[in-house]
Design goal:
Layout lengths: L4 E3 L3 H14 L3 E5 L7 H5 L3 E3 L12 H10 L4 E3 L9 H9 L3 E2 L4 H8 L1 H10 L15 H11 L3 E9 L2 E6 L2 H19 L4 E5 L5 E9 L5 E13 L2 E7 L6 H17 L4 E9 L5 E7 L6 H8 L3 H9 L16 E8 L1 E2 L4 E2 L6 E3 L6 E5 L14 E9 L2 H14 L1 E3 L5 H9 L1 H5 L6 H5 L14
Parallel strand pairs: 1-2, 1-4, 2-3, 4-5
Antiparallel strand pairs: 6-7, 6-8, 9-10, 9-12, 10-11, 11-14, 12-13, 14-19, 15-16, 17-20, 18-19
Helix pairs in contact: 4-5, 7-8, 12-13
Bound molecules: ligand MV4.
């Protein structure tokens, strides 16, 4: 086993990793920025290291500071959590150079699927279904127009180096593609320092379904079934469920087999997720692969009973997976609501001091949060405050439990998404399970999320 783990993250995921360490009786160190001095992970940790000032670029993203923190505290492993350096192939490589075990995939795997155009090719070669699209980046508008003529409209332009939906432009026809091509490239360059874009057929009325996979150092790959994450706003997930609301046992098996085949083709190590779009006819298409633990991993833990973060640490330590595919059972239905601090019509991150905090409990409720009463939210980081998760025998019972949990939750001092989450739980369309990626835009009167105005504002 690794002997001492550096937790190179903050907020609720730092706390989540700490908990896995304590369950494993593994010593750990938490890093923090000057803005996170009073954070809960720092308060609850025996050993901490300050790695720089508040802005992430000067602390959580600064590789030399993280590596130094690990070396001076005698750590032999680093868990990157999600965001920050978690999908940075160079960080994974540098950890190796300093004999630090990176709790995640190999730098090579991160690189192979980090470029979405390449990931499409890799997965198609492994036999996974993909939407019609270009084999690689389209370097000119003419080539984009020619490709779209073959593919058929509507199409979507995606930044090869993008991810999570950033840098996407939908085009219904040649005029829109002509208008969107240059802005898409400029935005891709500005956001990802890489202006490669590719063209793909746009799928309407589909669901966003992702399959959790784990791979160990001995080539064993298993999947932990799917999560459905169709309820998103501006490509931020708001609500996730496991298993998917409309996934038959047959489709689950096919999705799982595809995900396992894709991950095996990469000889994938540690925890990852393959993202698919699923239509109403049981067709599914590979979109992209995430090579980290995800925010929403907890609902998979609830329905499978598998501790994904503990597995990540064991896998990184060279322990073979202790279970096989046939041991993995999905039991019950789980829902996660993300509570974010946000304000105003543009949903800007809100800051403030948590004056009062009441968290829900009772049967089937799990809350992952770094909040405590009196905590002042720093302004430098993302707006996630808490993940409220429930587990119940059926989806209807899970919704009832979530309503109970949301009713009990009180967060004073900062405005949050709690009212929105309560609206969704009451909505007959949500309750019927008839939920597609356009749910928030259609049901909650919000702008379309794919077609952004030219120049990407
Ligand atoms: C798409 C799509 C439809 N057609 N690609 C968004 C996240 C990224 N990983 C993939 N995403 C999508 N890709 C094609 N060819 C729909 C989405 C999508 C989405 C689009 C608009 C509004 C909300 C969405 C939620 C999930 C997925």
């Amino acid at each position: 086993m690794v002997k001492k783990l550096l937790i190179a993250n903050r907020g609720e995921i730092a706390l989540r990793i700490m908990r896995a360490c304590r369950d494993l009786d593994l010593p750990f160190v938490v890093v923090y920025s000057e803005a996170d001095r009073d954070s809960l992970p720092v308060r609850l940790s025996d050993e901490t290291v300050c790695i720089g000032p508040g802005p992430s670029s000067k602390s959580y993203l600064l590789v030399p500071n993280i590596i130094s923190a690990a070396l001076i505290t005698g750590c032999d492993a680093v868990h990157p959590g999600y965001g920050f350096l978690s999908e940075d192939r160079y960080f994974a490589e540098i950890c190796g150079q300093y004999n630090l075990t990176f709790v995640g995939p190999t730098a090579e795997s991160i690189a192979r699927v980090g470029n979405k155009a390449e990931a499409r090719r890799e997965m198609a070669a492994a036999g996974l279904p993909i939407l019609p699209g270009t084999d690689g980046p389209v370097p000119s508008l003419d080539e984009a127009l020619n490709a779209a003529r073959e593919i058929g409209y509507p199409v979507i332009l995606k930044a090869a180096a993008g991810g999570g939906g950033r840098g996407m432009y939908k085009a219904e026809n040649e005029r829109e593609l002509t208008q969107g091509y240059n802005p898409a490239r400029l935005e891709a360059r500005a956001s990802f320092d890489n202006d490669e874009i590719y063209v793909e057929r746009y799928l309407d009325r589909c669901r966003h379904v992702e399959v959790q996979v784990l791979g160990d150092q001995y080539g064993t790959v298993v999947h932990l079934a799917e999560r459905e994450c169709s309820i998103q706003r501006r490509h931020q997930k708001l609500i996730e469920e496991a298993p998917g609301t409309s996934i038959s046992a047959e489709l689950r098996r096919r999705l799982g087999e595809a995900a396992t085949a894709g991950a095996s083709a990469l000889r994938f190590l540690n925890a990852g997720t393959l993202e698919f779009l699923v239509d109403d006819n049981g067709n599914f298409y590979f979109m992209e692969m995430n090579t980290r633990v995800q925010v929403e991993h907890g609902i998979t833990e609830l329905v499978t009973g598998i501790d994904i973060v503990k597995e990540q640490i064991c896998i990184a330590s060279g322990v073979p997976l202790s279970f096989s595919q046939s041991d993995v059972r999905v039991q019950g239905h789980s829902i996660e609501c993300r509570v974010n601090a946000e304000t105003g019509p543009d949903f800007r991150p809100a800051t403030g001091t948590i004056r009062e905090l009441l968290l829900p409990g009772g049967p089937g409720v799990r809350v992952d949060t770094h909040l405590y009463a009196g905590y002042t939210l720093p302004s430098h980081y993302d707006s996630l405050l808490a993940k409220i998760m429930v587990l119940a025998p059926t989806r209807a019972e899970a919704i009832a439990r979530m309503q109970r949990a949301l009713q009990e939750t009180q967060i004073e001092g900062v405005s949050t998404t709690l009212p929105f989450l309560q609206e969704v739980m009451k909505d007959p369309v949500y309750r019927s399970g008839d939920v597609y990626t356009d749910y928030v835009a259609r049901r909650h009167n919000e702008e379309s999320q794919t077609t952004r105005t030219p120049l990407g504002v």
